[in-house]
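Design job #97: recover the sequence.
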């Protein structure tokens, strides 16, 4: 089913993916996506209390649980079902949420009704010939279901963020603990008390400092992006998987070849039949074998479905089964005779221990990469959908739009991970928190996926219910086990999640309230076009770009500006950025342009549409794109038969590249040309009397100028004059108008509303990114402050 805006360029890239490209991506996934899976054997059996092993049958029972959990959750659910629910190549909880928003109209994004009416024609093709199901209609008409879906989407995102904090700690600390055990086995020939004390202290204090050093190094490497990290880490993970699978195969044949009989579900039944609180709690450790399943789906935007599935089925799954089988075989023979028998390092042959320590140290650093990358992806999606404070997002690849790096989030994750490592310094306690993050993330995906099956894939409610009941039952078993360990480390996850959820909820609530205030206090276009001349308002040379969230009417801050300074530019362009729940909007469909008022007023409205993987705001040539789209609209307006109806008149979808435009020709001018001073250096204002006041601060030249093409003589005279007036206005200078809101709460508001608005104001003032990241020159920026009483 195509997205409502048509297939994106990203989607086209996926369709044209060759097997050679798939193999290259599969190799990269080893270093990014599957590091978490590959390092899980370091702590799965190792975090189970040794007192839980009563006989060799216990090892069989645990391996049976482990095998079927890995098969049902990771292989069946995620690899063969959930990965199919990508949103034009993007994965994760918010990708599922965006599918539901787009196809079931349950979104709470800041788009008013007029925008929905304008865009409605684009969704007709996807629904044509289909009868809307009763379930879809019921969910669409119930506002409470909209809030519930947003709630579970935010909750799932918080679980992924929490997992991104905890995973680096448990991955690195588990290896450092193995290094400690190796040092403990070293025999010292010296007998002096002082030397023995030094060696004991060295073994005691090695794990935490070494784990902190590795963690810092890992987060420093994030700057280089997914592509380079993938090629850097992939060989390490490949060698590590081959090593542990080889050791596992050796242990199976050397210690207990019958271990594979434990695949039978009969052993799970035996485990449940004699269950007690301690053994049930140990299932929290077994759950860690599927750590990485959720991030496998969330990291989908960094690679492709085919590459992720191919790697898991052909390498990851068989290698992990061999590794766990070998470790279970070793435990079945040493459960009552060897200290630390349940740790992976003990099952490695002694002559390979040093190789194991070296590889595990390297693999542990890689093991956290999947969750860190997933955290970047989910925050980028939340950011674009208005559910996270503004932060700087860096795209590290021009081929894979989902590969992003967020510096502020990276350093915050590092600080929190270090605090977990230093504060807990115990793998078991951290594992309890990690298990909680894993299982709640999976439950959210199960709930969202069941809705996608019924409402987007349009399967029967029986199929959707079976999916929910089957996988929900498996995950509910592990939830009950995790809750028993809540007081032993798992509480920390809820602290992190509560803070993250509060930030995301406060930002979304404040953004919505601010948008509602703009809608309620906007003024009509007639006020600007018909009444303002009678108030003595003057038109001055140049272009005024007014950035606003509303798509109809005049924003309150601009009417406030005109009331105090009665003048505006000869060409006005109201620019609105509108997010849409799709990964990418094709450039040819990005700009929606129309007029405000009569043609003689030279006032236009431009709606810039973007997906949650698009970065249209931080481009240097954004102004040129806007001017070019306005010029294309002017030239095609008379002959266009597909204009869209809007409350203010007709609007048209434009978006041809400037080099292909028949309206205006861009000229990249690097020489000194008269009248081509930069927009930041030639600003024209007007006094109340109408006199022009010009301020010049020449520093640099414009990068692009516009000319009417040679074939412009065939244009209608009115079109040519309007295009020429647009060019002249551009040469005179451009001013950018931004509204600076100051939110305050009414005195009679409840505590929750006051708290959320207060949190929003704090976050808004401390954001590292401006509201409109367009590299606007300070000399051309006009900020208009207003008090918003919410």
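Job complete. Output follows.
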């Amino acid at each position: 089913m195509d997205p409502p805006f048509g297939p994106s360029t990203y989607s086209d890239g996926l369709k044209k993916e060759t097997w050679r490209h798939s193999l290259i991506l599969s190799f990269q996934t080893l270093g990014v996506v599957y590091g978490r899976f590959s390092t899980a054997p370091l702590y799965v059996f190792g975090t189970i209390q040794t007192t839980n092993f009563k006989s060799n049958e216990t090892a069989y029972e645990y391996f049976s649980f482990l095998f079927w959990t890995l098969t049902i959750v990771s292989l069946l659910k995620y690899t063969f079902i959930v990965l199919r629910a990508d949103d034009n190549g993007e994965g994760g909880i918010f990708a599922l949420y965006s599918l539901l928003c787009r196809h079931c109209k349950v979104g709470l994004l800041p788009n008013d009704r007029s925008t929905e009416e304008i865009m409605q024609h684009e969704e007709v093709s996807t629904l044509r010939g289909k009868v809307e199901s009763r379930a879809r209609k019921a969910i669409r008409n119930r506002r409470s279901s909209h809030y519930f879906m947003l709630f579970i989407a935010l909750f799932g995102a918080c679980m992924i963020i929490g997992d991104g904090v905890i995973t680096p700690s448990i991955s690195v600390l588990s290896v450092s603990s193995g290094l400690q055990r190796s040092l403990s086995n070293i025999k010292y020939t010296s007998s002096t008390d002082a030397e023995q004390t030094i060696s004991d202290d060295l073994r005691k204090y090695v794990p935490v400092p070494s784990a902190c050093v590795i963690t810092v190094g890992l987060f420093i490497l994030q700057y280089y992006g997914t592509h380079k990290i993938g090629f850097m880490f992939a060989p390490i993970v490949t060698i590590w998987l081959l090593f542990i699978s080889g050791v596992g195969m050796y242990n199976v044949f050397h210690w207990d070849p019958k271990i594979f009989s434990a695949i039978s579900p009969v052993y799970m039944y035996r485990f449940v039949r004699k269950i007690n609180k301690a053994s049930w709690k140990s299932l929290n450790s077994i759950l860690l074998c599927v750590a990485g399943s959720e991030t496998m789906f969330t990291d989908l935007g960094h690679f492709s479905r085919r590459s992720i599935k191919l790697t898991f089925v052909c390498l990851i799954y068989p290698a992990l089964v061999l590794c766990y089988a070998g470790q279970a075989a070793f435990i079945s023979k040493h459960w009552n005779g060897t200290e630390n028998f349940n740790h992976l390092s003990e099952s490695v042959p002694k002559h390979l221990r040093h190789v194991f320590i070296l590889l595990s140290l390297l693999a542990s650093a890689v093991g956290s990469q999947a969750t860190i990358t997933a955290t970047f992806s989910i925050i980028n999606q939340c950011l674009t959908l208005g559910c996270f404070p503004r932060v700087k997002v860096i795209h590290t690849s021009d081929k894979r739009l989902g590969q992003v790096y967020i510096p502020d989030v990276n350093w915050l994750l590092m600080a929190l991970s270090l605090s977990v490592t230093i504060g807990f310094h115990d793998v078991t306690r951290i594992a309890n928190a990690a298990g909680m993050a894993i299982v709640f993330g999976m439950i959210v995906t199960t709930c969202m996926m069941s809705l996608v099956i019924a409402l987007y894939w349009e399967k029967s409610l029986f199929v959707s219910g079976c999916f929910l009941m089957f996988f929900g039952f498996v995950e509910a078993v592990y939830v009950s086990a995790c809750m028993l360990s809540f007081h032993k480390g798992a509480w920390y996850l809820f602290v992190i999640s509560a803070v993250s959820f509060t930030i995301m909820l406060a930002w979304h609530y404040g953004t919505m309230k601010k948008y509602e205030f703009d809608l309620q206090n906007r003024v009509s276009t007639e006020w600007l076009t018909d009444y303002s001349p009678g108030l003595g308002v003057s038109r001055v040379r140049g272009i005024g770009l007014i950035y606003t969230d509303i798509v109809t009417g005049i924003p309150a801050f601009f009417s406030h500006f005109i009331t105090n300074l009665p003048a505006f530019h000869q060409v006005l362009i109201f620019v609105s950025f509108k997010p849409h729940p799709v990964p990418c909007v094709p450039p040819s469909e990005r700009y929606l342009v129309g007029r405000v008022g009569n043609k003689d007023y030279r006032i236009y409205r431009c709606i810039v549409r973007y997906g949650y993987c698009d970065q249209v705001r931080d481009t240097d040539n954004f102004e040129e794109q806007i001017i070019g789209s306005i010029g294309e609209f002017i030239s095609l307006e008379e002959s266009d038969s597909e204009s869209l109806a809007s409350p203010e008149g007709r609007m048209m979808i434009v978006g041809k590249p400037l080099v292909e435009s028949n309206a205006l020709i861009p000229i990249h001018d690097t020489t000194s040309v008269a009248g081509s001073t930069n927009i930041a250096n030639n600003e024209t204002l007007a006094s109340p009397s109408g006199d022009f006041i010009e301020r010049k601060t020449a520093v640099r030249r414009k990068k692009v100028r516009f000319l009417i093409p040679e074939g412009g003589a065939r244009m209608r005279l009115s079109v040519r004059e309007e295009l020429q007036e647009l060019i002249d206005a551009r040469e005179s200078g451009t001013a950018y108008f931004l509204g600076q809101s100051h939110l305050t709460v009414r005195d009679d508001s409840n505590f929750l509303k006051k708290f959320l608005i207060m949190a929003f104001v704090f976050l808004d003032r401390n954001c590292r990114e401006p509201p409109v990241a367009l590299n606007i020159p300070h000399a051309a920026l006009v900020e208009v402050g207003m008090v918003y009483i919410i």
